[in-house]
Amino acid sequence: MGFQRVGATTLGKTLLIDLSNRPEFLYTITMNDEEINNNKLNENNVDNVDADLTYVESTEDGEALPSKDAIKKLREDLKLCRKEKEDYLIGWQRAKADYINLQKELDLSRINISILTKQKMVEKILPALDSFEMAFANKEHWESLDKDWRSGIESIYQQFVSGLNNSGIEKIDEINIAFDPNIHQSISITETNEELKDHTIEKVLQVGYKIGDRVIRPAKVTIFEFNK
């Protein structure tokens, strides 16, 4: 059988026609503009074909699965989807918990750094603070000094104390309160006949300092002890 190129369409496709037996059949295929546009529209709509299709579970040979087998497969797929969902949920919850724990650790670390910085600052000025306290302790000598001069020194000391308080640093200098080994260091004992004073602070020999519950230096004190 022989074929001969006899014409071309406007889309660039060549028509081959058998001329060996039917020479009278000689055609040239042409398409008008409307047909060309319709053809292009059909080509553009190929991507939308999926939306009109219904998928059926099938065997490897392309035959539709029986209803029983199709339902079983759907159940297996549903079970797998649920397991994957649970795995994703557990993973997300674990990641969220790790993030929250990390934030807590970072916050705690920042707090500890802040406290440590304040502690180092107080430790450096403790000698100066102790000098003030020692000068004030001898009331007889202190009050014998010029009043204006004393007022100036006391004002400077109060500025120190105010700055410490504003930074969250507290003095440990109370008396007549219960002895607390966490914030007090007992230096000596004074006997008393008053039972209510037993193990209370009689005198503060050296002022202590703390930041919240963190003791920078315990107060050195004398305590009462009830003489039974």
Order of helices and strands: EEHHHHEEEEEE
Overall structural class, as computed from helix and strand content, comes to alpha+beta
> Which sequence of strands runs across the widest sheet?
3-6-7
CATH classification class of the domain at 118-226 = Mainly Beta
How many helices? The count is 4
What's the oligomerization state? single chain
CATH architecture of the domain at 118-226: Roll
* Beta-strand content estimate: 15-25%
Polypeptide structure, described:
By secondary structure, this protein is of the alpha+beta class. Among the domains are: 3-52, no CATH class; 118-226, Nucleotide Exchange Factor Grpe, Chain A, domain 2 (Roll), CATH 2.30.22.10. 47% of the residues lie in helices and 20% in strands. The protein is built from four helices and eight strands, in the order E-E-H-H-H-H-E-E-E-E-E-E. It has helices at residues 33-44, 67-137, 139-143, 147-166; strands spanning 3-8, 14-18, 169-172, 184-192, 201-206, 208-211, 214-217, 219-226. The protein has a three-stranded antiparallel β-sheet with strand order 3-6-7. Strands 4-8-5 form a three-stranded mixed β-sheet, with no helix packed on it. Strands 1-2 form a two-stranded antiparallel ribbon. Strand 6 and strand 7 form a beta hairpin. It is elongated, with a radius of gyration of 48 Å. It starts with a strand and ends with a strand. Residues 1-20, 22-29 and 49-53 have low confidence and may be disordered.
